[in-house]
Amino acid sequence: MSTTPKPHPQGDTMSQHAKETANRVASNAGEMAQDAAKHYVQAPAQDLFGLAKSYAKDNPDVAACWAFALGVIVGWKLKP
């Protein structure tokens, strides 16, 4: 004799509650990941640009040579 399990009287509400909880956790995890990405990508990039600007102010001739060299290399690589 096989018996089929009886559905839990609150089964639908429990699964709905589990879905809502999972959605809330996933949403919070996504927000935290975006905040971390902003901090760990944006802050170092701003620091690097600040360092490059201060170096260019102190050594404008060297910075101009680097800019020219990078322009030549990028232009050479993008040439059709």
Provide a quick synopsis of the model.
This is DUF883 domain-containing protein. The chain has 80 residues and is mainly alpha-helical. It has helices at residues 11-58, 60-78.
Explain how this protein is built.
The chain has 80 residues and is mainly alpha-helical. It has one domain (21-78). Helix content is 84%, strand content 0%. Helix 1 (11-58) crosses helix 2 (60-78). The N and C termini lie far apart (77 Å). The model has no long low-confidence stretch (mean pLDDT 81).
Helix and strand topology:
Blueprint (H helix, E strand, L loop, with lengths): L10 H48 L1 H19 L2
Helix pairs in contact: 1-2
Protein name: DUF883 domain-containing protein
Organism: Novipirellula galeiformis
Question: What keywords describe this structure?
Answer:
80 residues; mainly alpha; 0% strand
Can you tell me the number of structural domains? 1
The strand count comes to 0
Q: Name the average pLDDT.
A: 81
**What's the N-to-C terminus distance?**
77 Å
Low-confidence stretches: none
Fraction of residues in helix: over 70%
Shape: elongated
What kind of sheet is the major sheet? none
SSE string, helices as H and strands as E: HH
Decide which structural class fits the backbone. Answer: mainly alpha
DSSP summary: helix tally: 2
Proportion of residues in extended strands: under 5%
Gyration radius, in Å: 29 Å
Organism: Novipirellula galeiformis
Protein name: DUF883 domain-containing protein
